[in-house]
Structures are given as structure tokens and as C-alpha cells.
Design brief:
Length: 146
């Protein structure tokens, strides 16, 4: 026997060999170190705007504007659009847009999932940047009943 000189020939080996365990642990540590930076990249980066900003990088006239009303009606640059044709309308409007920015405006009562679907559709249609705007101050907020 190579490991223990005091062990008799007919006795079973009772020592634990930890070398394979250490090898597996080191391989797992290396894999996690390689994957960790990739896991941190995934996600959406959000840029915060300033509340009273007078001049932005992109004017509203140069971008594609998508509006979602409380009853589910969609408009792209003021033109009513069916939900099934939203991607086509956004990609057609992006052809005329210089910086490929889509700005989404939704009413206060809309669900977050609806807005996220519009943002996903805009990215798939070719938008380089997407932004969420709050409704104009002239629009009345819907009354919340209890």
C-alpha cells in the first residue's frame, strides 16, 4: 500500500482521498469567476433625467413617439396603430428618425406590462434608445375610486 504503511493487506481502505474533491472545487471556482462578470452585464441601464431640464440631447420632433392611452389605443407619431402592426409602424418611423430614439408615453392607469411590451417591440424594431416620458401636464390623471 502506498498511503499507509501500518495497514494490513486484508483491511479495507478507510482514509478519504480529498484530492478529487479539491480539484472539483477549484474548477467550480474558476467557472464562477469566469461567469460572474457576464451575469453583471445583463439588465437594463436606466439614465435618470433632471426634473427641470430645458434642453435635451434629442428633441421630441426628431424621435419616434409612441403613446398608449388608458383604453389601450396606440399611436405612433400621432397616427393610430393596431397593436399587431406596432412593430411595423415603429420600424417605418425609425427609418425617418436620425438617432433611432423611441419615446413612450402612457397614461397613469396603464399597467407596467403593457409599457414593457411596447419597449421590447421598439427594441426589436430597431430602436437604438428607448425612453419613457410622463404624460403632458394638461392631461388629467384618472380618478382612483375605492
Amino acid at each position: 500500500m502506498a498511503g499507509n504503511a501500518q495497514q494490513a493487506a486484508d483491511e479495507p481502505i478507510t482514509d478519504i482521498n480529498v484530492t478529487p474533491l479539491v480539484d472539483i472545487c477549484l474548477v467550480l471556482v474558476i467557472i464562477f469567476m469566469a461567469i460572474a462578470p457576464l451575469a453583471m452585464v445583463a439588465g437594463v441601464s436606466v439614465l435618470h433625467s433632471h426634473g427641470k431640464a430645458a434642453v435635451g440631447k434629442t428633441s421630441l420632433a426628431e424621435s419616434v413617439k409612441v403613446k398608449l392611452t388608458l383604453n389601450g389605443r396606440l399611436t405612433v407619431n400621432g397616427v393610430p396603430v393596431a397593436p399587431a402592426a406596432l412593430a411595423q409602424s415603429i420600424s417605418a418611423a425609425l427609418l425617418r428618425c436620425k438617432d433611432k430614439t423611441v419615446m413612450v408615453t402612457a397614461d397613469a392607469g396603464n399597467r407596467v406590462g403593457q409599457v414593457v411590451e411596447i419597449l421590447d417591440t421598439a427594441k426589436l424594431a430597431g430602436a437604438a434608445k428607448v425612453a419613457i416620458l410622463k404624460p403632458e401636464s394638461g392631461a388629467a390623471a384618472p380618478a382612483r375610486g375605492g
